[in-house]
Each structure stands twice: as structure tokens, then as C-alpha cells.
Amino acid sequence: MKIKRIMLTMLILTISALVIITCQGTVKICLKESKQIILPLCQGYYENVTPASNLQHKPAFILST
């Protein structure tokens, strides 16, 4: 069971990283084009993703839940 949880956590972290990378690319694009539409979306992604990326600093918490 612990192995499945670790794999699930790694999957979530990978998806979070991809979202952050995509958002950084989107920010660069929207600086050239329309800041008002894409930038708020990216800020929302960053706020949602940050707690998930902090999980990697708390492995004991992940295993205990």
C-alpha cells in the first residue's frame, strides 16, 4: 500500500511540475500578447499547485496518511 501511495504522490508532483512549466511558458507568451486573460489563469495555477509541490518536503506525512 505504501508503494502505491508513493507512486501516486510522484505522479501528482510530476503533473504539478508540468503545470508550472506550462505556466511559465504561458507567462512568456502572454507578456507578448494579452496579459489580462492568461496571467490571472496562471496565477490561479500557481496558487493551486504550490501546496502539492510542498508535499515532497514532508515524506513522513505522506506515508502516515
UniProtKB/TrEMBL annotation:
It comes from the Bacteria. This is Uncharacterized protein. It comes from Izhakiella australiensis.
